[in-house]
Amino acid sequence: MSKLNFIYLCLLVSCVIAFQSDELLQDDEEFGLEGGLPHPVHLDLDSTNNIKIPIITPPVIPSIRKSVDDSDSKIQFTLEHAFGDSDFVPTGTFTARLKSWSHGGQTLTKLRFSRNTFTDSEKEEFKQLLKDDEFYRIRLPSNVLSPPGKDYIVSSVKARCLPRDGLDEHFVIHMESVNILAVNYGSPGACPYPRPFKLPTKWSFNSHTVLRNSEQAPRAPAFVEDIIIGGEKNAEGENVPAVEKTFWAKYWMYLIPLVLIVMNAVTQAMNMPEEPAAGGAQVAQRAAPAANRRR
Amino acid sequence: MAMVIRVFLLLLLSFYSIPSSAIYEDQVGLMDWHQKYIGKVNQAVFHTQKAGRKRVVVSTEENVIASLDLRRGDIFWRHVLGSGDVIDELDIGFGKYVFTLSSGGSILRAWNLPDGQMVWESYLQGSTPSKSILFIPTNLKYGKDNIILVFGMGSLHAVSSIDGEVLWRKDLAIESLEIKQVLQPHDGDIVYAIGFVGSQFVTYEINARSGEILKRTSETFPSGFSGELSYVSNDMLVALDTTGSTIISIRFGDGQISFYKTAVSDLVENFSGTASIVPSKLTGMVALKLNSVVVFVRVTDSGELELVEKIDSPAAISDPLSVSEGQQAFAVVQNGESRIIITVKQANDWSGGNLLKETIVMDQQRGNVEKVFINSYIRTDRSYGFRALIVMEDHSLLLLQQGEIVWSRDDGLASIIDMTTSELPVEKEGVSVAKVEHSLFEWLKGHLLKLKGTLMLATPEDIVAIQGMRLKSSQKSKMTRDHNGFRKLLIVLTRAGKIFALHTGDGRVVWSLLLPSFKRSDACPNPTGLNLYQWQVPHHHALDENPSVLVVGSCGGPNAPGVLSFVDSYTGKELDSSTLGHSIDHIIPLPVTDSTEQRLHLLLDREGHAFLYPRTPEALKLCQAELPNIYWYLIEADKDIIRGHTLRKTCTFEGADEYCFDTRELWSIVFPSESEKIIATAKRNLNEVVHTQAKVVEHDAMFKYLSKNMLFVATVSPKGAGEIGSATPEESSLVVYLIDTITGRILHRVSHHAAQGPVHAVFSENWVIYHYFNLRAHRYEMSVIEIYDQSRAENKDIWKLILGKHDLSSPISSYSRPEVMVKSQSYYFTHSVKTMAVSSTAKGITSKQILIGTIGDQVLALDKRFLDPRRTLNPTPAEREEGLIPLSDALPIIPQSFVTHSLLVEGLRGIVTIPTKLESTSLVFSYGVDLFFTRIAPSRIYDSLTEDFSYALLLLTIVALVAAIFVTWVMSEKKELREKWR
Questions:
Q1: Which residues are the signal sequence here (chain B) (predicted)?
Q2: Taking the mean position of all CA atoms in its chain, how far away is CA B372?
Q3: B821, B738, B750: which is closest to A213 by C-alpha?
């Protein structure tokens, strides 16, 4: 339970990191200047620490993750785009590692994306889209192993949402094993309405990609026991009772006055060394209401 | 901030009002009504066992069997079989049983005739689906039992009439045999099963006691057979060949089969086309339908055919009825202009003239006659009289006797397919003095009685009078708008294509209209109504005009043209209608109205074009302004794909005009077919009003994500798509999605392992509640997902609010990346669910209730607070203050929270809630075979006095108080004076 929450939190945090990062600007040179030749740029999403791809593995037994017979293979699939109602043409490539689990499932990890820069004609088309407040559309195959699979996954955005300094885009790819269910494509932040007409200063793409797998629904702690009896083994760490508060955390409000009383008593006792031993008790008695008042 | 405080106060308020929808015994019927229906009658069997008990047993298309009173049309008893349990055959046997054969001939049940108790039920095994035949021989005994012969699922069964035990079973499903008839030609043990194998005619001679096949005879008829077989006499049958132009009379007795062919054109001159056999059980005679004419042909023992009578376009022909020894009578009904003609003929003696010929004036709103059943009785003058039960085009059931309609039932209301509401007209100024005087007197009398009741002075008669007065208070059934908005018209569309307007006060039918444009015609052979929309809802400045509704239908079939009809909501007159040049796949009401307050609608056809209605230049202008903001999605359930679309530009195809738009696909979500299948979707009601945009959680405001463009989708593994128990917990899982329908963005996605459908869901405000089955816990579960908007969290800053820098009023674009936070929780729930709805109120302040249509056909109101994802085992005092209920694993079912109290809404299919002007109250209309209407107040009625509040008592108290003040004042004056004189 708490583990899942933790993973979920990680995911949220990483998303936040993902869209706030601007560190890819250093790659801008490689994208080339306006009208330059298209250079495929590899955004190593794992080595550059700014984009994490949180992989939520399906809720399998954790030990399986370490099993040795998992095999990896590299796969590629293309991103295609269209301007308004034009036909789709390839514009970039996703590469990823396909991890096969011993229980038969397959997941993608280490997704990398390389995008071609716009050609001159594409820039013109894109400018036209910006002018008309039209849609910039992309599509991906629905199955990465045998593209296009059942059908293409289409997503679109109003072209005016993309330009900032460069062209900022954000992909969230929802996966189920080797199938792509949906891709959320858009600007990494807000796209205010009404959308102003603005040309990008740099014709280079600043891409952020996130892979998402399905999460498991949380269950109320009260029924986890039933589920364990029912034979589910992945309850490891889910049934941890709430962390017991430390003694200090529970009783500080009593401890502090007590310490003060004691300290008070001690200092007073030190100030009056000539008093007989019986006086110490008296002092302590006198100090208690004072401490109460302080409290 | 002010809003936050308000929210907090409201939450506090809602906590202290513990809702309960229970009512007292004497409140039943005050604000609720319940109507019982049976649906369109398929089969009817009269029983005239004793003179005192005049009843008819009917089975209907809604899978109801019922026993009706022949004098008044009331239901004596009724049983609603499940929606999959279609009744094939119905019969009365041995004087005291009703037998029904249902579910494709696999379930045979016996019911006790007088009280409808089920006597026994028998499941019949079989291999292949086939025609089902129920045959009750009168004199076949097996020991002491009578035998019932049932042909179903490809097998012939003999069933004992006492306990339903299957005595023997004979599989006749071999070699693609189609059994058409089971008959017992002579008194004795031998029964015949007769059918076709391709063009071969086959008879089986079977010993009814043992099930042994005594003889199998077959004979090939080269040109083949088509359609039905008609049993004519002991050893004679009549069939038609494949072309439908030749009548074949088949003699099959004595192990010999011989065919006699007669061309139809020899009997009827100038005949061309195909004939078909009209199923009738006339002896020695067969009825054939040739185009619009029905001919009766006598079949002699030698197989000769002889034309007896020709009837032009009859609407219905009844089964024959034996009147006296060897005498058969049957009825023919013909439709006339606003009348019907019913003729009862003698089957044996055609020359003797008609036994009866009556013309009955018929309401045109009932349409044509579809079925007729007749029954005879003995008149006072000892002659035979006939009464006829007729089923009309609008599914109503009428009993005709002596040329009059004895009673009628509007059973079309058992099959409501869509509904909407309409406000009543505003009360006109100026009421006559006499009326005022009368009502004043009544008012005074009523209040006097009520006062007596309150002061416990009322006699029992008075109490009855008070109750009667409350029940039929003229206030609630008035035809004008009331202050609280309780009185409305419920406009319902039934499967027969008829519209009814029901008054919410007492449930009476205010008007009904059998849509002329939905009648069968050559251009539109099979019209069906699809949906009902509010077309024109005039507000203040256009109150002179009546509101109207739009009825959308289709001519049947996927590419058939659509039909539109506009109906006045007050008068029930059809204002306009049109048959469209395109099909209708979906209808999108736009949030725009033109200057006459007609709502703009986009109709999508199957080719991906959108058509704008109304077709006026003004509407076009309005639509074009909204063009870039119109988005919709289509769910392709068969392919498990959801696609988002938008409008592009004016159509370019041949014959298109400027009211037609091309569409383009914007996004798609493709569910992998090997692992996910869409089983349920839910979306927010577009008219829903949300009062508070934020929720206080631990003294901090959380903003609800209130996009109207959210869609809830539930998918299951293909293996789990079947019935519960068809998949193991490992095989089946449920995945739910929250999808933004503008961009196709998946906002939330979560999977439930070991869960299975059916899934029912409701979506309201920022939460969705769904019901499914947990295979591992072997219980039903309900889950809640609440979605919160994190991007608006900075709006809480009070300095921004003060400095006017908050962006609460700035438009929110779907193209911005949403930052959402989701809270969810699951609870067990005992009932399985038929349908779910959520209460809705005028301003959205009142807390919500989930209305659950349970499997027991009741409606349960469950407070939303039980489905709060924040419930914890030990809520902190702050949380308790907020109204959080301690966590439990199951949702409570409080018996008092059934809004249907003791009543059942048989065959429950839908629940609709309608807000009233009074914030605390909403109207609930639930429909199925029955209709039930009531009012609910999820947080109790906090904004008005109850109806039985005694104003007179209040007045009396005030008067008494004033009098007491005067008396004490006078007394104190006197005392003061005395003091001064002392």
A1: 1-22
A2: 24
A3: B750
The tokens for B187 are 């008194």
Question: Closest-CA residue in chain B for A183?
Answer: B745
Instruction: Among B753, B813, B828, select the one facing A216 at the smallest CB separation.
Output: B753
Query: Closest partner residue to A153 among B646, B668, B825, by Cβ?
Result: B668
- In B, minimum Cα distance to A182 occurs at B669
Higher local confidence (pLDDT), B98 or A41: B98
CA distance B711 to B494: 28
**B730 has a pLDDT exceeding 60:** yes
**Which amino acid does the sequence have at B220?**
T
The phi and psi torsions of A88 (rounded to 5 degrees) equal -80, 135
Of B669, B750, B817, the CB nearest to A189: B817
User: Are B887 and B809 a contacting pair, CB within 8 Å?
Assistant: no
- Which H or E run contains B834? strand B833-838
DSSP assignment of B392-461 equals ETTS-EEEEETTEEEEEE-GGGGSEEEEEEEEPPPPPS---HHHHHHHHHHHHHHHHHHHHHHTT---HH
Contacts of B750 in chain A (CB under 8 A): 214-217
Beta bridge partners of B551: B532, B565
pLDDT on residue B413: 93
Q: Are B553 and B571 in contact (CB under 8 A)?
A: no
Please give the Cα distance from B715 to B735 (Å, whole number): 5
Residues in A 10-39 with any Cβ partner in B closer than 8 A: 19
B250 to B133, B227, B258, B284, B879: CA distances (angstroms) = 21, 15, 6, 13, 84
| Strands of B746-753's sheet in order across | A215-216, B746-753, B733-740, B710-716, B677-683
Rounded Cα–Cα distance for residues A77 and A173 (Å): 13
C-alpha dihedral, B456 to B457 to B462 to B467, nearest 10°: -20
pLDDT tens-place string over residues A164-173: 888 888 899 9
**Distance between CA atoms of B649 and B664, rounded to whole angstroms?**
9
The 10s digit of each residue's pLDDT in B737-776 is 999 999 999 999 999 988 888 999 999 989 999 999 988 8
Among B31, B72, B2, CA closest to B503: B31
Whether the CB-CB separation of B683 and B711 falls below 8 Å is answered with yes
What pLDDT was estimated at residue B800? 62
Assign B289 to helix, strand or coil.
strand
B771-805: b (≥16 Cβ within 10 Å) or e: bbbbbbbeebbbbbbbbbbebbbebbeeeeeeeee
ipTM higher than the 0.85 cut: no
C-alpha angle B405-B407-B410 in degrees, rounded to nearest 5: 110
Tell me, yes or no, if the pTM score tops 0.90. Answer: no
Residue A139: closest C-alpha in chain B = B667
Q: How far apart are CA A53 and CA B292, in angstroms?
A: 72
CB contacts, 8 Å: B643 with chain A:
154
pLDDT at B11: 40
Q: Which helix (H) or strand (E) holds B468?
A: helix B460-471
Chain-chain contact of B811 with A212 (C-beta, under 8 angstroms): no
Q: Other C-beta atoms within 10 Å of B618: how many?
A: 13
Residue B745: strand, helix, or coil: coil
Any chain B CB within 8 A of the CB of A181?
yes
Residue B336 main-chain phi, psi, to 5 deg:
-125, -175
Mark yes or no for CB contact B777/A230 under 8 Å. Answer: yes
Mean pLDDT lowest for which of A227-236, B130-139, B428-437, B459-468? A227-236
Residue type, A286: R
Q: CA A239 from chain center: how many Å?
A: 25
Burial class, B961, CB count within 10 angstroms (exposed 0-12 / middle 13-18 / buried 19+)? exposed
Residue B971: phi and psi, rounded to 5, are: -65, -45
